[in-house]
Amino acid sequence: MNLLTGRSARVWAGFAGAAVLLFAVAPLALSDFRLGLLAKYLCTAMVAVGVCLAWGRGGLLTLGQGVFFGLGGYAMAMHLKIADAGPGNLPDFMQLYGTATELPWWWKPFENPLFALAATVLLPMAVAALLGLFIFRRRVKGAYFAILSQALAAALAIWLIGQQATTGGTNGLTDIQGFFGYSLDDPVNQRMVYFVIAAALLLLIVIARQLINSRYGELLVAVRDSEERVRFLGYDPANVKLVAYVVAAGMAGLAGALFVPAVGIISPALIGIVPSIEFVIGAAVGGRASLVGAVLGAVAVAWAKTALSEEFPAAWTYFQGLLFIVALAFLPGGLASLAVLVRRRKATAEKKPTVIPVGEAA
To answer: Which range has the top average pLDDT, 124-128, 159-163, 352-356?
Structure first.
């Protein structure tokens, strides 16, 4: 009991430390531009939290998180573009590329801010639930599941590109000016967006931790390690995996929704195959089984992409692929596993009995 209490205290102390860094240190130490970049990185970390749950705990290599990130992002961007256009007006790109005189029928519900906010999370979760029912009921897993999820990301990106009059095509939804009545040109409001993103990330970490440490989390690990034994015990592994997949989709959708006001754009280039792989790379490098490792890995990889792509714009993608391969081949547990090894060696050294020389004992 004391051990559990001590561990819980360390966890909450770490959580409080992270809150101080995000809400106090970062805003004071970083310029508005760098703080905006950090907000962007934290959105990728939010996706990594879901990847940690689905892949790290459930063994579901989700290479299609860009689908859910994009659904949440477009749901938010559609409402913001309608709000920017004003009552009775069409978004600017529809006036430029389209011939319609009114909003398409599937755009109209997004005029309502409450509907748009709910859709950023519920729409990705609903799509994930529908796909998961077909995939997991047919016992698709392993590499087949990874390839299928990646194909879905490619399909969504291709569809969005082909609907230029209603989705902006290759350009996507750009030049977003406001966020629920607040101008994004104002640095104060940009900081407000950063604080919202930071709070959302901490909330998702708490939710994921509660799931991981619950009875469901133990069952999810059991399904990952021995699916047939879990089925023999009377549980349906498909339902267990479906919950993790749907929750991870909701987290990715929320990340995509908050990415839009942070960056001011959402496009097919941000949600296709390459971005989906980048989400997984961040979690893999940091440690897909560790929430802290996945979050830090996602932020580090996103920062490295920004820094190194400026120097090697044509070769950065190859660096990413090499990083992913090296992480899986030589450090499957990510950088977080190094901390675990250090703690285990320290604990072993403390438990090792002291050997007293024979002469001194006499």
So the answer is: 124-128
Average pLDDT over residues 57-86: 92
What are the tokens at 114? Answer: 């409450």
Mean predicted lDDT score pLDDT of the chain: 86
Region 330-343 average pLDDT: 68
Torsion angle, CA of 200/155/289/284, rounded to 10 degrees?
A: -100
Query: At residue 352, what is the residue type?
Result: K
CB-count burial class (<10 Å; 0-12, 13-18, 19+) for 169: middle
Rounded Cα distance, 100 and 93, in Å? 11
| Pair 299, 198: CB distance under 8 Å | no
| Model pTM above 0.85 | yes
**Residue 225: is it exposed, middle or buried by C-beta count within 10 angstroms (0-12/13-18/19+)?**
exposed
23 with 198: CB under 8 angstroms? yes
Find out whether 277 and 324 touch, Cβ atoms under 8 Å: yes
Q: pLDDT at residue 186 above 60?
A: yes
Give the count of alpha carbons within 13 A of 17, CB side only.
Answer: 7
* Token output for 8: 């819980």
| One-letter amino acid for residue 24 of the chain | A
DSSP per-residue string spanning 127-185: HHHHHHHHHHHTT--THHHHHHHHHHHHHHHHHHHH-HHHH-TTT-B----EETTEETT
Between the alpha carbon of residue 294 and those of residues 95, 200, 225, 339, the distances in Å are 42, 16, 20, 13
3-state helix, strand and coil shares in percent for the chain, rounded to the nearest 5 = 75, 0, 20
- Which residues are CB-contacts of 361 (< 8 A; sequence separation ≥ 6)? none
- Closest by alpha carbon to 185, among 248, 236, 261? 261
| Residue 217 amino acid letter | G
State which amino acid sits at residue 347: A
Handedness of CA 18, 19, 20, 22 (dihedral sign): positive
**Both tokens assigned to 159:** 């569809």
